[in-house]
């Protein structure tokens, strides 16, 4: 699993819905520290709009990705990097990440209800070791800036391995054997291809994910359990949970199960 997905406690079936980079980031200072911060949005806020708005208030941000939890709640992971001296010297802080944490807290003042949850402070040294451990060519990685190391982690979230990203770095192309609109930059190539949905990973087996869960809110929505229920009864359950009768009355059982299992397609207002 990609390092950034593993760094946070995402519930099963959370989905990444978008990814971005900040092309106007500062160059490396030599003493850079990084912060990946998970921010959860209030209900009904659009992660696309909110992540764009929030990042416009984050001077050190280099990119990130946003998505939704299985219940539809939006979230974003924001990647920042700044010189340690910006905190230790300029602000006389004891934590080299102070400027990055402070930026998030300031930006959150513009979105009442949004909350900063988990964070990961990955050192550039660790990122280099991680990339090499993931199969990337050590000579190529040695040339990467801290921003590029973080973009490598974003590329990994798009189902492209760090070995492939490193292999295409010097040529500026992630997909030399594939017909594509080349962006001339290995990272931009990956992100552009991801938005076309050509890089989707394999779909999780819902029975496998929820099969053994006995006492959770999602238990009643597993395919395994829904399969055993007659179609008419499924319609009644869907209506009891807020679906409009006219929307589900004529839906085939297979589609109905899919709608009921997929938190994204539950009716608005359903917890
Ligand atoms: Zn290309």
Q: What can you see in these coordinates?
A:
The protein has a five-stranded antiparallel sheet, sandwiched between helices. The radius of gyration is 21 Å and the shape is globular. A hairpin with a 5-residue loop joins strand 3 and strand 4. The chain has two domains: 193 residues, no CATH class; 56 residues, no CATH class. With 271 residues, the chain is an alpha+beta fold. The two termini are 29 Å apart. Helix 5 packs across helix 7. The chain is built from 14 helices and five strands. It is 39% helix and 15% strand. Bound molecules: zinc ion. The site of zinc ion has 6 residues, from loops.
List keywords for this structure.
alpha+beta; 271 residues; binds zinc ion; five-stranded antiparallel sheet; disordered C terminus; 39% helix
Brief summary:
The chain is of the alpha+beta class and 271 residues long.
Protein topology:
Layout: H1 3-6, E1 15-21, E2 32-40, H2 47-55, E3 61-68, E4 74-83, H3 84-88, H4 98-108, E5 115-120, H5 124-133, H6 138-141, H7 146-157, H8 162-169, H9 186-195, H10 206-210, H11 223-227, H12 231-240, H13 245-248, H14 253-261
Residues 173-175, 180, 182, 189 line the site of zinc ion.
State the total count of DSSP E strands: 5
Helix coverage percent: 25-40%
Task: Indicate the structural class.
Answer: alpha+beta
Give the amount of beta strand, in percent.
Answer: 5-15%
Low-confidence stretches: 213-220, 267-271
SSE order, as H and E? HEEHEEHHEHHHHHHHHHH
| Distinct ligands | zinc ion
Largest sheet: 5 strands, antiparallel
Strands of the largest sheet, in order across it?
Answer: 1-3-4-2-5
- Radius of gyration, in angstroms, nearest whole number: 21 Å
How far apart are the termini? Answer: 29 Å
Mean pLDDT: 86
Number of helices: 14
Outline: globular
Task: Quickly count the domains.
Answer: 2
């Amino acid at each position: 699993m990609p390092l950034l997905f593993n760094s946070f406690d995402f519930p099963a079936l959370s989905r990444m819905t978008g990814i971005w980079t900040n092309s106007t980031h500062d160059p490396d200072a030599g003493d850079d520290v990084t912060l990946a911060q998970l921010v959860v949005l209030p209900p009904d806020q659009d992660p696309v709009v909110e992540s764009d708005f929030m990042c416009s208030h984050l001077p050190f941000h280099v990119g990130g990705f946003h998505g939704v939890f299985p219940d539809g709640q939006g979230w974003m992971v924001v990647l920042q990097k700044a010189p340690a001296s910006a905190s230790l010297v300029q602000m006389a802080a004891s934590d080299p990440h102070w400027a990055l944490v402070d930026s998030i807290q300031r930006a959150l003042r513009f979105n009442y209800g949004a909350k900063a949850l988990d964070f990961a402070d990955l050192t550039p040294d660790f990122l280099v070791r991680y990339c090499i451990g993931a199969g990337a060519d050590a000579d190529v990685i040695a040339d990467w800036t801290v921003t590029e190391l973080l973009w490598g982690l974003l590329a990994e979230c798009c189902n492209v391995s760090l070995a492939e990203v490193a292999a295409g770095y010097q040529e500026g192309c992630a997909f030399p054997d594939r017909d594509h609109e080349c962006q001339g930059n290995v990272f931009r190539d990956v992100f552009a291809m991801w938005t076309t949905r050509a890089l989707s990973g394999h779909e999780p087996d819902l029975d496998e994910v929820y099969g053994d869960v006995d006492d959770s809110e999602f238990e009643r929505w597993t395919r395994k359990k829904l399969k055993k229920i007659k179609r008419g009864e499924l319609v009644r359950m869907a209506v009891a949970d807020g679906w409009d009768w006219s929307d589900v009355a004529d839906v085939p059982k297979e589609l109905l199960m899919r709608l009921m299992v997929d938190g994204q397609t539950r009716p608005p207002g359903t917890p």
